[in-house]
Structure formats: structure tokens, C-alpha cells
Design a protein that fits this description.
The chain has 20 helices and 30 strands. By secondary structure, the chain is an alpha+beta fold. It has a seven-stranded mixed β-sheet with strand order 4-6-2-13-10-11-12.
Amino acid sequence: MEMNQPIGRTPLDDRADGLVGKPLDRVDGPLKVTGRAPYAYESHALKNPAYGYIVTATVAAGTIKAIDAEAARKAPGTILVMTHENVPEQGEKKEQVWPQLQGREVTFYGQPVAFVVAETFEQARAAAMLVKVSYDATKPKGLLKPNLGAAYEPKPMVTSPGVKADSSLGDFDGAFAKAPIQIDVEYTTPTQIHAQMEPHATIAEWQTGPDGDAVVLYSANQMPNRGQPPLGSVLKLPPEKVRIVTPYIGGGFGSKLQALPEATLAALASKVVKRPVKVAMTRQQEFHVGTHRTDTIQRVRLGADKDGRLTAIGHESWSDTAIGDAFYETSANVTRSLYAAPNRITAHRLVNLNLPIASSMRAPGEAVGQLAFECAMDELAERLNIDPIELRVRNEPEEDPEKKIPYSTRRLVDCMKEGAARFGWDKRAKPGTTRDGQWLVGIGMSAAARQNPLKPSSASVHLGPDGVLVVRMAMTDLGTGTYTILTQIGGEMMGLPADKVRVELGDTNFPKASGSGGSFGAGSAGSALYVACDNLRKALVEKAGLGSGDATFANGSVSVGGRSVALKDLAGSEGLKAKGEIKPGEMEKKFSQYSYGAHFAEVGVDVDTGEIRLRRMLGCFTGGRILNEKTARSQAIGGMIFGVGAALMEDAVIDPRYSYYVNHDLAEYHVSTHADVPNVDAFFLPELDDKANPLKSKGLGELGICGAGASVANAIYNATGIRIRDYPMTLDKVLKGLEERETQRRT
């Protein structure tokens, strides 16, 4: 099926008491809480595995003078020490998957420079500590700000088809210069680390047979089908000879969208030692060998008339990534669609630094872009003395401002107004005027928007003689509830209870699927399953000979016109199979598709210490059909908490002398914990989007973080009257603002 026209009435619309939408408990929950769900590093019935450990560079720029691995090779249990001197031949870099241990050049701290394989993990780690590497080090480029001169020079940007790094409409410069009200502000966001619970891990088994070489990777990978071509390029194998198996993933937030060095190194070592090799990054290695969200510098310019209607919108963003890479943070992309204005520019610029590769992190672009833009909108509201919600309502567009096409659905204003009513927005006071003892108290809000893509996906279904529906696809579940949602879709489409549906995921031997990322997973994979089940329904009706009337699937049977046949009887001894496929079509070209929401936050700021405490937070969202009430709310709240961390604490601190993350573990890299998040809730307004996909659903996984941190930042301003534009908003920045305000008062 291609989405070339709106979806009419479907079986999911017919059953008010069906499985879809209900708060079904996670079907994979019992396996996980009892430790029986196999993650990447755990046993996969492989015989005689060896263990690998990565040796990383201790300089960020320079060359390797020499590697002394003699002691490591003689250490107990050592099987192999692999360096640039003996690594197997590799192919070309593809996407963000690099050949490993190539030559002497070092371009970032933590770059793998050797790989030790031994009989046990402890032996591999001990031998790795014996590898001595000497360097000719040079001064690294490790911070974005001192290198902005290069960023201002236009340079080619790698973009997806149909996506431009820059955009313009009308005469921004002229309109901004003439605007009676102008905002011209700079916001900065820091490097952030994904900090998922499961580290990157892979068990690789190189296979040599009559059809040539192949490799099986049991690896933590959010998008296994996407991982095959780049790994195949580096390992010099056809993509179909790279099998990736990843049934369970312990979190990723985008860090596992592509294979990282541990997967390549494990595969190369397995090829040499002719045994399976398993490797997991340490938590410290996650910070330097793994990926991160780049820091950004964002300039936002808003021109408006005295009634608050925008005449000019400008949003420019500078970000960085590794030497030789082209990934950039698309911070200004969401700005292109959010509010009306006839004159507009957005731009993205990139600096290559001696840092690990930057990559996608939950809501790439929107998460940090709205941290800046939604605060700038509040600054404009303050300048105009207009309520921040009213300002946004006055700039509600009738169509996508830059694409000039209608929205498929857009209930942003409804989200803001309903959220405001539930939160008590009408009690918001002037900045710096509300106190609770030692605490200055303020509330703030922000809009939320996240694009809703549909990706090609396919699925197979098999109805067995026992009446059990088996679903297979190379989709993944990284903790978001995919197993459960697909169980609900399959069960409702076939009229089966949840315990009669078995979902098998995470193997590239299964039908190709989108994988998890970009908030497209549930809609894309779920739509493929919907089509497969629809095809199976047709086959069952035909086999039953029930005629051409409307068929009802319920209670394990199919009924037409009062006649009913049990599905397991129709399946027969061999069972019945069907396949389904979904592809994006004309709908994504004819309609602008986003999920929307609004965040509301209340904070307290201690007048003496500058300490900031979140007191309560509420999110109101629309995301088309809600596929599971429980997992959707969990995703929304999780995203909001992610946003709180971005606003108040997340910051991977770079030592500019060494281009090194100082706080490279979960003790010093701070993320929100229970004590930081006392009262957070989320709810959804009813919505169906018949132009999005056959499910009429939209993506939610990343919507919750979009704008969440900005609502906290705006609440801090409302509490204190101090506008902080450098994230995270730590107490030292509050104290500086309080001191500056006191100095101004005295003078």
C-alpha cells in the first residue's frame, strides 16, 4: 500500500471495545523483569565465544608514534591484539560507519587504537591495560565557539532528498529592519550524551561457507536494515551477507541508529580468530567512542507589528561534528512550519572539530531548536506585553508557511488552550512577583511540534492451526512498547485476544522494516502489519466461502451474514500466510504532517542559593489515534523529563586543552532523577489523521521532549525576571542574574 489518498473507514474504527488504544500491559514485561529477554551481550547459544576490549586514544589530535603490545600478547588468555598494523583489509566508510584502526592519525579522544581479544572479559580488559601507545600530539580544536569563524563560511551540507539545510521566503532582511518590534537573541545549548542504560554491545560470528563469507551480529541496533549496507561496505560484504539480530534493546535515544566501532571490531576479530567475539563498551567509553548531541549556537530574530503579528522570522544554527563527518543538528527545521510570517530565513552551518561523531539524539533538531525558538517567542510576548499563548494564537498559520500546503491535522491551539485551563495558566503573575517563603515561583509554557514521517516497512503474518497469529518483521523495540502495540494491532485486526498473538522482531532475516527512530516506528511498522492482516483477512474470507458481505473478525472467528467459522479451522494443518507493505506516497507531498502539543511548567527558585526546583509540569498533546494509552502517556512523560534535564542539568563538559569530556560517567553527567521530577503528567486530545497512515496515528516518541525545556526556562524567567540564554540553566547563572539585577537597582 502507498499512502496516495486519505484512509476511509477501517476495521480499527469499528470496534470500540477492541485492543487498539487500550492501556495493555507490555507483553514483553514478564521476560524483562525475570531476566529472560536476551539483550545484545547476553548468551545466544553460540559456542566458545571470545571477549573483546577496546583500547582508546588518550589524545584528541595527532599521530600514533608506536604501539607496544608485546606484554598484552603474552598476558594470560590473550588470543589477539589487533592494531593498525595487522587489522584485516576494510572497505569504504558509509554513512557514519567508519573502518577501524586505519593508519596512525588520531582525530578524537577515545578513538579506538587497538582491540584485545581474550578467553574472558577480565583477561581482555587486563591485557588491554598493558597496551602502550605513544603519540605525536597536536593542539585539538575542541570547542564550537572559538571556531565560529569557519562556521560562518558557507559550506556544502549533506541533506536528505527534499530536505534543504537553508530556506528563505520573501525579504527577511528588509522586513526585519522595518519591523516596529524586534527580537535579536542568541541561545546556546551544550553537548548532550544519550546516557541509555544498555551500553553498545555486539556478539559477532564470522561465517565462511560455499557461498562466501557472511557475518551475524547480535547487536544493539535501532535500525537493523539500515545498518546492513554501511557495515557491508566497511566489512567488504554484500549487505545481504550481514545479518543483524537485535530482539531487545535497553534504550538508545538515537545512539543506536547506526553501528558503532564495537560492532565493526567484533566482526573483524571474529574473522581472524574464527570464533564468535563479544564486546561491550564501558560506560566511560560510551561518552567518547559513542555518539552525542552536538552543542549549538542559535541566533533567533523575530520582527513583529505592535499587535504581535510576526512579519519576519529568522533562525540560524551552528553545530559541530567529528573531523571528516557531515552530520549537523537541524535546529531550525521545525521553525519552518510552526508560525505564520511572510518573510523568513532558516540556516544551518557546521564546524568539524576533534570530537567524536555527533549524531541523532531524541528529537534531533527540534529538541534544541525549540529550546531557543520558544524562549525567543516568550521574549517577544514580554516585549509586547501580550500573553505568551495569545501571541502564539495570533500567529497560527492557515497552511504550512514555507511548503504552502495544508496541514493534515493541526490542533496546536487546542493543546495550548486545554492545557492552560487544566494547569491554571490564568493564575500566572508578572515576572518576579510570586513568592513562597524563600522561593520565587513562576510558570511558563511552550508549544511542541514534531514532524510525522512514514517509512517503508513490510511484515509477514502466519495464522497457525492452533489459532495463534505469528507476526514477523525486522522492526525493533528499544523499550518503547513496540511488541505490545503490534500485538494490539494484530489482535484487533484478526479478532484475537492478546495471548493469541506472538510478535517476533529484530532480525534482518525477517521482512524489512523501518526500525525505531524519528517517531516513525509505530506508525510505519504498525501500518505494514495492518496491511498484512488485511490481506490475511481477505484470504480467510475467501477460503471460508462466506460470500462478499462485510466480514467481522471477533472471538477467534470470522462471520458474514450470521454464518461464522473459527480461524484455526480455516488455517488448516499448514496454516495461512500473508504479507503486507507500506510506502509513503502523495499524502506526504500534499499535506504537512506534524504531531503537536503544549507544555506547562511551574518552578521555584531559591532567592539565596539560586537553586531551581521543578514543582509541577503538564503536557497536552495530539498524535492521531493513540495505539496504547499506557505506553503513549509513558513516552510523553519520559520526553518531558528528558526536556527538564536539558533545561536544568545536562552538559557534557569539554576540557578545551584535550578535547575531552570531563564528566564521562553517570555519576558526573547529570540527568533527571526521581527527586528532580515530583509531579509530571500528560494527556492527549482525541484525533484521527486519515492522511498519515492506515492506523490514522502519528508519532509520539520524540514529541514530549520538543519544547519541554523551553517551558521550564520560561517559568524560570517568570519566577525571577532573569532571562538565561545559555543552557543548562544552573544556579550559578541564576545567581549572576540576581546579582546583576541588584546592582542595577542600587545604581
